[in-house]
Amino acid sequence: MSARPDSFFFQAVRRLSDLLVPRVCMSCNASVGIEAPELCDTCGWELSALVAHPYCTYCGEGRGPHLLREGICTSCQTGDSEIRYSKFVRVGPYSGSLRRLILQYKHEFVLDRFLGSLLAHAIQGKLDPREIDLWIPIPSHWRRRIQRGFQPTRLLANAALQHLAGRVEPWLESARYLPPLHAGMKSTDRAAMIRGAFRLARGARLRGKRIMLIDDVTTTGVTLREARRTLREGGARWVGVAVLAKVVELPALTSGVDPSAQGQ
Ligand SMILES: [Zn+2]
Ligand SMILES: [Zn+2]
Fold it and tell me: Can you tell me the distance from the alpha carbon of 218 to that of 186, in angstroms, rounded to the nearest whole number?
């Protein structure tokens, strides 16, 4: 659970000092010293603890080490999982300082390098990025994109790939308006509502490719599954996902999550 001062994690925190930002913690806005990294000690340690949480590399569920064998949970081993990807990678559960950083990122894009380096580190720990042919960001809904003026998942993918071998292609596009989905809805209803939400970009060449989808936050996984279905229909051979965070505690859905600012 502890992280050494020379670890990748702390080096990534220190690299934030390259940015011209106010000297406050980027996660909680507490004041930090002139020479300090942009995360305060509390948020830095909290983030390192979140990153250390174990999770299943097929479905993304965090079930504790006693239920994980070789990184795979009991449900995925027995074939009972509702969702099972070719590979699932995440930085941490959607909680605490990681959640605050992601919410902050959706309003100010200066955090893309930091979050991208965290995502790259998470990916390197779970697979060899040279085995991936394409990295494809989940598109934001067009209305959200105009409101924000930038494509957070594409920036995130580009930032992560600065640390990895490979190329980012925005070959998945929003096909239509996507209504808000709620975790309380039946999974069949959510799946029906999102069916056909994506289309392939003109000129996309997916046949036989190994693809990693990149997203910021996943809640129910229905968006990622629909994106995967679209890619598989386009000929993709293998589709994994890499996300900054996964919502793992149901109570957090009603208490701390901004449903307009996250994936589904
Ligand atoms: Zn802080
Ligand atoms: Zn699993």
Answer: 17
pTM, 2 dp: 0.82
Domains of the chain: 8-261 (3.40.50.2020)
Per-residue model confidence as pLDDT tens digits over 49-102: 999 988 999 999 886 655 777 888 888 888 888 788 999 999 999 999 999 999
CA of 150 relative to ligand 1 center, distance in Å: 25
Ligand 2 centroid to Cα of residue 84, in Å, is 7
Q: How far is the CA of 261 from the centre of ligand 1 (A)?
A: 21
- Residue 145 and residue 211: Cα distance in Å, rounded? 24
CA of 48 to the centre of ligand 2 (A): 23
Ligand number nearest to the C-alpha of 29: 1
Strand partners, 168: 135
